[in-house]
């Protein structure tokens, strides 16, 4: 059955008080709380070392939190009932070099009885002109990425976790792979979390955003809601500091270049004065927050963990 709608009442990922501590580094994630409704395609962004891979590894059940809790479809990520519903593709793709592509898919079939979709997997590698009898060890980095993504999609996951898996693809293939992934995800209302630094690529593909910086959640929610909470303001300004008209708003970031003044505001009503005001693009909003790590976090209502889960974690 084709289901193009997202499932707002169902929760794919939910975290409260989530923390991960590495022995030498200290807290890589700290007190993270958020919710990702099922069926969304979520961009996971943040500077290098922000904690994105750590968060994805928790969701994939590859490590356990040191504080708080993360639930995947209401269960523990490592639960036997949850794990088969989750596919994870990281930066390094652990495929067997001596296997052919067909062997790799056979393994996918054996590991995912009753779920495996050979058609989806084959479609993805055929689109890249990769023969099924090619040995994985003889493929280029980009071709191996394609096989790894095909293996993940063949599993027909409810949650697909992608940790910058496409960084070694050329721009054309990257574009084509994103389109193929999104089409497959939409077909089954798969929840996707895609960590990437390529903000322009996320713009059209993602409807949800999770931004982490320094181990904490900075922005979370529907892209549409987050964008409409912000305004990009430009104009000529020769005064000192931040213009008075901005006093009723929250200034995320303000920059002056000569007399040209640009600011990203979290607005409370219209912006007074002679300013050019527009809604920012996803890239403009994220870049401003990356440059302003001290800006207060914004968690949209749909991204707030449910009170019941919060109480449960706090009582534990
Ligand atoms: N195995 C580890 N042991 C110690 N510290 C680690 C380990 N893995 C990650 N870290 C540290 O935890 C922090 C978060 O790392 P993580 O890889 O989750 O960030 P990231 O947002 O994915 O970064 P990038 O965008 O560079 O991939 C970093 O400071 C990193 O050095």
Automatic annotation (TrEMBL):
Native species: Streptomyces mashuensis
Keyword Transport found: yes
Protein name in UniProt: ABC transporter ATP-binding protein
Residue ranges annotated for the ABC transporter domain, each copy included: 13-239
MF terms (GO), sorted A to Z: ATP binding; ATP hydrolysis activity
CDD domains hit by this protein: ABC_DR_subfamily_A (cd03230)
Taxon lineage: Bacteria, Bacillati, Actinomycetota, Actinomycetes, Kitasatosporales
Record keyword Ribosomal protein present: no
Keywords, alphabetical: ATP-binding, Nucleotide-binding, Transport
InterPro entries: AAA+_ATPase, ABC_transporter-like_ATP-bd, ABC_transporter-like_CS, ABC_Transporter_VariousFunc, P-loop_NTPase
